[in-house]
Design a protein that fits this description.
Blueprint: H1 11-22, H2 25-37, H3 41-70, H4 77-84, H5 91-94, H6 97-124, H7 134-144, H8 157-175, H9 177-205, H10 219-227, H11 237-251, H12 257-262, H13 272-312, H14 317-328, H15 333-367, H16 371-391, H17 397-434, H18 445-468, H19 470-474, H20 484-518
Helix pairs in contact: 1-9, 1-13, 1-15, 2-11, 2-13, 3-4, 3-10, 3-11, 3-13, 3-17, 3-18, 6-8, 6-15, 6-16, 6-17, 6-20, 7-14, 8-9, 8-15, 8-16, 9-13, 9-15, 10-13, 13-14, 14-15, 15-16, 17-18
Bound molecules: 4-fluoro-L-phenylalanine (PFF).
Length: about 525
């Protein structure tokens, strides 16, 4: 007899879980870095256009498709796509991306998440307190990451210890399941995260103009850096690509995670208002908290030119170099540093558990094994897969994983699911399905947007990539020669993981075929 699938305990539970997945390191590290390196206000128009034309439609599509697939006991894309288009034997293989993508992000994301836990302790115990310069803080980070031996760290040991702790906590939460683990954690973690976020925001917004030599480097101008629109950048394809990419990443859409979470809903549960609420919480955390804390703090201490340079010099520099330096200059700096890094940790863990869930749901649903077995298997395999990201960070492995898992496949997968939903399933049926049990109606214009504009936008993004970014990436033109073997090995490894998952899909469906014949 098939076992009963897990389900959400309360409506607030799934909203918090999806918001938890969405609110992550992307909101507080990636967003400020992308916004600052693309000129602040120049970034925000493409960002909001992408939110309304890609992000929110995809959120509704995924909640609806996930709930639909859950009705057939499928929590991941292979089964969900198959339920939508039964006549097509291949569509389930496209669904492999919906397990592969989250797994790839999980591999490097958990490692970065462990830095935030480590830095929470460093802040509390004053380990970086005496450092006063960018270069000093940069060496501290590089020493910690095992990229150089220096006065602060002699190897990767401490980072590895924190990785193992972070990994175990992740697996432990998932072990307790949807209702008993994920839902509980997210409710608590988001609550604390918002409190810390407000405290930091209050501190940063009352900084005034701390640099006596540059009175223009003040809070008002810092906010203006992000919020004064700059229309000149609308012509730049790069800014559009980065803004759209940020929307995907921050909302956790286009990758299969929301599909899985929504598959634990019941048929009559609302998806319209819940999806919108989760998106709104994410945007608040990103542009209001992430934007005003990091961008403003960096602006008032380093000014409009340097903030862009810092952000362009590496995505972690604002969060792990600038923020601790800025907070160091304030009273109670240890505590403020702890608020900042522990906020990051909470944001990170509620996202990484969501990244693990598709692979686990796939094993549970399609191979009919228990959650405990599925989690154990996932734990062992993913632990091994994390190792290259840890030990070859300096060789560009994390960037490579982020490109495929966190950028490229998101757009591909989003395109497939939008076409399936609006065109194969059919927009009329899709519209009814979205509104099943809904607490509010989606504005009618979205019927048009989902059918035409979202897919068109996605095709334009893919087209821009093909013409502008692809060849150099595929041929590793910007990768130093010494790193190329590592990048190549990463690609081969990724291909092997993808093919393994595809074979598992094949086996699962063959098993199902046999069971049906027996009956
Ligand atoms: N949304 C998360 C963040 O902003 O950090 C990252 C993420 C989680 C991306 C889950 C994709 C995903 F499926």
């Amino acid at each position: 007899m098939a076992k009963v699938r897990d389900s959400w305990g309360t409506r607030l539970g799934i909203i918090m879980a999806v918001a938890g997945s969405a609110i992550g390191l992307g909101n507080f590290l990636r967003f400020p870095a992308k916004a600052a390196s693309n000129g602040g206000g120049a970034f925000m128009i493409p960002y909001f256009v992408s939110l309304f034309l890609l992000g929110i439609p995809l959120m509704w599509i995924e909640w609806t498709l996930g709930r639909y697939g859950g009705g057939f006991e499928h929590g991941t894309a292979p089964g969900i796509f198959h339920s939508l288009w039964r006549k097509n034997r291949f569509i389930k293989y496209f669904g492999v991306i919906g397990i592969f993508g989250p797994l790839v992000i999980f591999i490097y994301y958990t490692y970065i998440e462990c830095w935030t836990l480590a830095y929470s302790f460093f802040a509390l115990f004053g380990k970086y307190h005496s450092i006063t310069s960018q270069t000093g803080m940069q060496s501290f980070l590089r020493g910690f990451q095992g990229l150089e031996h220096n006065a602060y760290f002699q190897g990767i040991g401490i980072a590895y210890l924190f990785f193992v702790i972070t990994f175990i906590v992740n697996i432990w939460v998932i072990y307790f399941g949807i209702r008993g683990g994920i839902e509980k954690l997210c409710k608590w973690a988001l609550g604390i995260l918002f409190v810390f976020g407000f405290l930091l925001m209050a501190r940063v917004l009352t900084l005034g103009a701390p640099n006596a030599l540059n009175p223009g480097w003040n809070v008002t101008n810092g906010m203006g850096f992000l919020w004064n629109p700059d229309f000149s950048a609308l012509k730049s394809a790069k800014v559009w690509l980065e803004a759209a990419g940020q929307i995907f990443f921050t909302l956790s859409v286009g990758i299969g995670v929301i599909l899985t979470y929504a598959s634990y809903l019941k048929k009559g549960n609302d998806v319209v208002l819940s999806g919108l609420t989760a998106s709104a919480m994410n945007e608040f955390a990103e542009v209001i908290i992430g934007g005003s804390v990091v961008i403003t703090a960096a602006f008032v201490f380093f000014g409009p030119t340097q903030i862009g340079d810092i952000a362009r010099s590496g995505v972690f520099n604002l969060g792990f170099v600038t923020m601790p330096l800025v907070l160091n200059q304030m009273p109670l700096s240890g505590l403020l540093g702890f608020f900042w890094f522990f906020l990051l940790f909470l944001a990170g863990i509620t996202s990484s558990i969501s990244l693990a869930q598709p692979a686990i749901a796939f094993l549970e649903d399609e191979f009919d094994i228990s959650r405990k077995k599925a989690v154990t298997l996932f734990g062992i395999v993913s632990f091994l897969l994390c190792q290259p990201a840890i030990f070859f960070l300096g060789r560009g492995v994390v960037d490579e994983l982020d490109f495929w898992g966190g950028t490229f496949f998101l757009v591909i997968f989003a395109t497939i699911e939008t076409i399936l939903f609006a065109w194969v399933f059919g927009m009329e049926k899709a519209w009814d399905e979205i509104h099943r049990g809904a607490d509010m109606r989606v504005p009618k214009i979205y019927k048009f947007i989902i059918k035409y504009i979202t897919p068109l936008f996605l095709f334009i993004i893919l087209g821009m990539w093909f013409t502008q970014e692809w060849l150099p990436i595929i041929f590793m033109r910007n990768v130093p020669a010494a790193n190329q073997p590592f990048i190549l090995a990463t690609r081969i490894g990724l291909l092997a993981v993808f093919l393994t998952l595809a074979v598992l899909v094949k086996i699962a469906w063959e098993n199902k075929g046999r069971q049906v014949q027996k009956v």
